[in-house]
Amino acid sequence: MTTVAAESPRRMRWAVTAIVAGVLVAELVLGWESLADAVAKLRTPHLGWLAAALLVETAAMQAYARMQLHLLRSAGVRVPLRRHVALAYAAHSLSVTLPGGPAFSTAFNYRQMRRFGASPAVASWCIALSGILSAAALAAITAFSAITANGAPDWHTFAALAVAALLATIGVRRLTRRPSSLAAVTRPVLLLVNRLRHRPADHGQDRVQGFAEQLRAARLTPGHGAAAVVFALLNWLLDAACLWFCCIAVGGGTISAGQLLLAFCAGMAAGTITIVPGGLGIIDGALILGLIAGGIGTEIAIAVVVLYRLITLGFIIGVGWLSYLAIRPSTPAARRP
To answer: What is the reported pTM?
Structure first.
């Protein structure tokens, strides 16, 4: 009886594997002509435009690093740009290539910012705010591309992100001016947790108060705030420019800027709802469909996406893992026996 029960899941796995393999083979057979044409286009990309695509993609990574640099400098933490760039590459590679990568990336970001000299509260504030700014920037670019492509912009998402950023800023300002307000908000929660854990009622209250005191340094000045917003936008726009240069490199430069931005935003949005490392298959499919909708032929669209992904998943991720290996040995966790 046990043998039969053990065989059932095994047969199910083999059946699922066979179905997936059959679907992939069918897709390969049906799309072989387009795939062959795409490979032919990919063999002869224009080297000048290919170099430009590499250049703007590295500039996109620098823009993200500069955004976090300005957030930390606004809180009084000053670190050379090269260390921010190395952290941006390494954290991006962790986020994209590992299952559950965003969690590893966030933890790594936090540890490195603590090494930069940021307090726990400032490091947490910087990571949270950089995520909100990046998401809001993508929403703004999506709305702009929808307008230019004669579509209907998703103002609801953009408004929600703008309100979230505003509330986060107001909340941090309130806490920095009156740290006692955080203690008042968290006291009922601590009472409940301490009661369940059979601890004294005020257990942990001093840590909450200390965290609130650290938030006093987390003040986003207008100058640094404006610079962070600009670099958040540049991060996405330069990434989209890389996709555009890949289009031109293989002969697909006829697509309009609005349609290309719309295809790019669709691909990036699709990547946020997948657990597959690198968004493999999900981002690629969304980008190809978006480019085809913009008037590019199927074989050229495939070539464009393959070239773009070689740059973003090959070159950038490779540099990111080299940065991680260079940073990792010097972390306190690595030196711990």
So the answer is: 0.70
